């Protein structure tokens, strides 16, 4: 029953998001005109998918995925709460995108996301387990992409990622967090985030 209630709640939230006046076709088209796409260098934004975030209730961890079965498993079986949509990413390689790797440190339950295979290798040497490619994102700010900020709390062994600069700055101001720059560039969730 727990899985059913989550899936129903998730489906209802997704439907409300899709039907929201702020997410109308005209507002999405207006957002696209602000961030024009060059077909020679950019991935097709219609191929992008939501990148969901879940937060652990039992330990400091944020888990990001574009795969709904992983969302369901994290919420139903692993003690995570659904946190919403963090960004839009690509599940397969698109023009000008690079792999966005995921690694996990099981003792601390920290998920690390990076565009650097070398950083994953270093993390693996330090006890992380490589989980492969989580998504594909842009390595620089092109194609209407926005920064995906990365911060780290060494006391809690926790990484956090957001497209929201105010959210990043709030955490940095709360103590214990260090700015690790920009993990890469993703597509904004657009007017649906407002």
Short description:
With 194 residues, the chain is α+β, with helices and mostly antiparallel strands. Helices cover 29% and strands 35% of the residues.
| DSSP helical segment count | 5
Main sheet strand line-up: 2-1-3
Mean pLDDT: 83
Q: Which range does the strand content fall in?
A: 25-35%
- Give the % helix: 25-40%
Largest beta sheet, briefly?
Answer: 3 strands, antiparallel
Distance between the termini: 32 Å
* Strand segment count: 9
Helix-strand sequence: HHEEHEEEHEEEHE
How many separate structural domains?
Answer: 1
Q: What is the SS-derived class?
A: alpha+beta
Query: What Rg is obtained from the alpha carbons, in whole angstroms?
Result: 17 Å
Describe the model.
With 194 residues, this protein is α+β, with helices and mostly antiparallel strands. It has one domain (2-193). It is 29% helix and 35% strand. It contains five helices and nine strands; from the N terminus they run ααββαβββαβββαβ. The chain has helices at 2-19, 25-34, 68-77, 117-125, 165-173, and strands spanning 49-56, 62-65, 80-89, 98-105, 110-114, 129-137, 146-153, 158-162, 177-186. Strands 2-1-3 form a three-stranded antiparallel β-sheet, covered by helices on one side. The chain is globular. The two termini are 32 Å apart. InterPro entries: DUF5648 (IPR043708). It holds the Pfam family DUF5648. This is DUF5648 domain-containing protein.
